[in-house]
Amino acid sequence: MTLHADVAELLAGAGILDVDVDDAVADEHVRSSAYRRVVSVAVSSRSRDRDRALVATILRDPLDMVSKSAVVALVDGIAMKAAGPGEFRQWTDELRPETDRFRTAGYREFIRRRIQDWLLRLAVEDGHVPTPVELSNATDWMQRVLAETSMSPAVLALLAESGSTRKIRNIARNRARSRALTTR
Asked: Most exposed: 17, 70, 140, 175, by fewest CB within 10 Å?
């Protein structure tokens, strides 16, 4: 298929009628914005049946950076809706044949790490306290997210002690302290 046909199919499938396909094909910024809108529609759907085909189509885009942004948005959106790490792992396992097709090795690795980060966060939300090794395998981004959002005193204590940056350690320490004050 051609880029024009792919973009037209994605927009039509998402019911997005206000994007000029020719403009999207000619301008990667317009196309990237269109992909994010398509991904938003996909994330809001209850059905996950079309996600693999969506990713396969997006990955045919000639610019890996445009594809990467859209796939990351899809992974993030689905992770935020997932009922737990098991559901998210199953979804990502089904998507892996497509995400492994990124032409740029660094982007394949980025997606893998993003998935691992989300699996860790979902496990923490389910009550898992990561080991120091699990925490060290998480990206700085996910460690900061956990420091900013976790309600677990044990997770905050681990991040305050072993977070990868001073900022992460300080956020976790301050949140642990304020949580301790509010539980008194």
From this structure: 17
Neighbours of 182 (CB within 10 A): 7
Taking the C-alpha atoms of residue 52 and residue 68, their distance in angstroms, rounded to an integer, is 14
User: For residues 87 and 53, is the Cβ–Cβ distance under 8 A?
Assistant: no
E strand or H helix at 172, and its extent?
Answer: helix 166-182
Contacts of 87 (CB under 8 A, 6+ apart): none
How close are the terminal C-alpha atoms of the chain, in Å? Answer: 63
Q: What is the pTM of this model?
A: 0.92
Flag whether pLDDT at 182 surpasses 80.
no
Q: Which own/partner pairs from 104-111 qualify as long-range (CB within 8 Å, at least 24 positions apart)?
A: 104/64, 104/68, 107/64, 107/67, 107/68, 110/68, 110/72, 111/68, 111/71, 111/72, 111/75
